[in-house]
Design brief:
Blueprint lengths: L3 H29 L3 H5 L4 H7 L3 H21 L4 H14 L1 H10 L9 H21 L3
Helix pairs in contact: 1-4, 1-7, 4-5, 5-7, 6-7
Length: 137
């Protein structure tokens, strides 16, 4: 039998997971639509050489991955731990882009100052922790 405290914790994790899913899907939609050009700024030049493709393809592919993972967080409850780890891995994988964006000092909507771009770097570990915590059993 689950205690009241355990049910509360589970409900909080479920709400956090749902919010993360919505944010991932929204970010993914931005990657493939209206924010697509702005996201290209964050793609480091070395990544196009490594992946042998262009920045736009990287932005679109990462957007599709975000949408899929967002949907999977809600649609695959039995796989939530694996999906959570995949979300955390995505957040780690895009961190070099956050660093590149900060160092390039280029503005995009919402990140139009050095301070905001620098602050964004500290959001990434929180997103990783959010993905891991919200998908725990």
């Amino acid at each position: 039998m689950t205690s009241g405290r355990g049910r509360t914790r589970a409900a909080l994790r479920g709400a956090a997971r749902a919010l993360l899913a919505v944010l991932l899907a929204a970010a993914g939609l931005g990657h493939v639509t209206v924010l697509r050009r702005g996201f290209r700024v964050a793609v480091p030049d070395w990544s196009t050489r490594l992946l042998r493709t262009d920045k736009d393809t990287i932005v679109v592919a990462s957007g599709v991955v975000e949408i899929v993972l967002g949907v999977a967080l809600l649609a695959l409850p039995r796989e939530r731990r694996r999906v959570g780890m995949a979300v955390a891995a995505l957040f780690v994988a895009v961190f070099p882009g956050n660093i590149h964006h900060w160092r390039s000092r280029r503005d995009v909507p919402g990140l139009d100052s050095d301070a905001k771009r620098f602050g964004r770097l500290f959001l990434q570990p929180l997103l990783v922790a959010w993905a891991v915590w919200s998908t725990r059993r």
